[in-house]
Amino acid sequence: MLFYVVLLLLGAGAYYYHFRINRKKIIERLEKVVQRKRDDLLKNIEEARRISDKLDSKRRDYIGNLDFEQLKKELQKGSVTCVEAVRTYFHKAILAHEKTNAVTCFILEAEQQAEELDEKAKLASFVKPPMFGIPLSLKECLKVKGYDTTRGFVQDAYRPSTEDSIQIEHYKKLGLIPFCQTNVPQSLLSYNCSNPLFGTTTNPFDSTRTCGGSSGGEGALIGAKGSLIGIGTDVGGSVRIPCHFTGIAGIKPSKMRFAHRGGGASVPGKPLIDANDGPMAQDVKTNVEFLRNVWGDIDFQSDRDPYCPPVHWNESLYSSEKKLRIGYYIDDGWFTPTPALQRAVLESKKHLENAGHTVIPFHPPRLTDVIQWYFRAVCLDGGQYVLNKLLKDIIEPTIHFQVTLWMVPTWVQRIFSYPVSLVFPRMGVLMKSLTRDTFELREAYAEIEAYREEYVGLMMKDNLDVILCPASIMPAPQHDIPSKVVSGVSYTCLYNLLDFGAGQFLSDFFQRIFIVFPGVVPVTTVNKSDEEKLINEYPETDKWYQITKKATIGSIGMPIGVQVAAPPFREEAVLRTMREIEIAITGK
Ligand SMILES: CCCCCCCC/C=C\CCCCCCCC(=O)NCC(=O)O
């Protein structure tokens, strides 16, 4: 017996030794890549600075102070040129980058694209496209010809995309000029924004706090006024959480409203929970204008990707005067949000009631189950795909906790989940979430499908048009917190789980009720009384609550958004609701 124990220990030791040596080699090799990439970025920024400096600083300030609508008009009139717009936004993005480390690369060809557009504009026959000359920032994972999409993995550096994705092609056709790429967390499966290649992106309001993720670079850049409009992706909150953390507005349309051919994903091959791209901007108005133009011309995407139905912008839904019926909740029953987030929903409710809408309580059912199905379906191979990539890479320290969880074999997690449940029941739920086998995975898929019916059934029973709820559980926390409180995505991941696969859109009934489309609009900032309530009333019943409470203390002044969600192909109703909240708050 002793012999076998010794043999086993020796075997384990040898395996561990081999593993360490191998990891050391990988890290040494990749550290050189990191250095090269960082040197290249410095040169790239200097080149962008040289380009931006060609424009007189007074002119740059003038153009830099125009909002989206004003810049769009001036570009259309010809009183601002595309080259001037690009040079201005190189300048503004450099300033934002110096503050937050948001940019991973400037797309230097933007200047040339701008020059070509300006040349075309001189021809009498040329009809300017609707978003002529507007600079567009892009999350690093979106495919642009000639540029990397590393998703924060060092191993994927210097493997540039060979083509633009269909969406990028479309944006260029509409006159937009992609001018920079922005940072992401390693793997995209986190709501912070750090990776070993480009480092940590910080929140423009407080550098000790995260800008959110995974479209965190976009959040930081737009929040710091370095871009007017950008594109993120969202599989669990990655557009909405950074918007909420950085005080901007953004939306995650239902999957089929964009073409996905040529796009990338955090975990390819997960059928029920898929990432959608979505715009992010300083206000709702800009998102509306952007989507009005993109969906007004959606045939461009549908023609190239038959899985993208040609559903056009629905102006009558957006501009309708019919009063809405809105369901709201301030606590999903899984994770009580901190007081400012609850107040933001209640204030928005009042604004909407003042505008004549009916706002009634709505309770999303069984969030504990939702959390389990979501993690099971996102990590559909038990996290193996991401873990394999991570083990071939330098692992980002701010996601160490999350990676450690993934490394524990599923059967071990399952055994320990029972004793853990006795002292920390919510952790027990998470520890039972990763799938043991395909039998369990199929079951989870079936549950998700049934849940979709249940959820929309509840909405239909009360004849609800949209749902109003918190955007997250807390204001922006410190950089390492998201990986420690990964279950805090319940407010956003619910609406990814309710998304829909191809095919069902064929029926009008399904189109109306099944896919849910959420967006986030900034509403308020954390105040003193929120902090007092947090200290005196916020639960401390388990470790996640304790971490959340501690991370939220000291967040006075941080932005807070709310989330609005609605059934598929009714994105315009969500935008209308968000815009009405925006008008009530800002008066414009
Ligand atoms: C012992 C318990 C094991 C559970 C381990 C869970 C590990 C965490 C897995 C997934 C985290 C999901 C967080 C989602 C954050 C938002 C991500 C997002 O929207 N990404 C966008 C994209 O992928 O494009």
Automatic annotation (TrEMBL):
Catalytic residues of the enzyme: 139 (charge relay system), 214 (charge relay system), 238 (acyl-ester intermediate)
Molecular-function GO term, any one: amidase activity
Broad enzyme group: hydrolase
Domain Amidase: residue ranges: 84-575
Entry keyword annotation includes Hydrolase: yes
EC number: 3.5.1.99
Database matches in Gene3D superfamilies: Amidase signature (AS) domain (3.90.1300.10)
Transmembrane feature ranges: none
UniProtKB keywords: Hydrolase, Lipid degradation, Lipid metabolism, Phosphoprotein
Binding site for substrate: 188, 214, 235-238
Any one Gene Ontology BP term: fatty acid catabolic process
Reactions listed under catalytic activity: N-(5Z,8Z,11Z,14Z-eicosatetraenoyl)-L-serine + H2O = (5Z,8Z,11Z,14Z)-eicosatetraenoate + L-serine; (9Z)-octadecenoate + glycine = N-(9Z-octadecenoyl)glycine + H2O; N-(5Z,8Z,11Z,14Z-eicosatetraenoyl)-ethanolamine + H2O = ethanolamine + (5Z,8Z,11Z,14Z)-eicosatetraenoate; N-docosanoyl-ethanolamine + H2O = docosanoate + ethanolamine
Signal peptide: none
Family: Belongs to the amidase family.
Protein's name in the database: fatty acid amide hydrolase
Gene name tied to this protein: Cre-faah-1
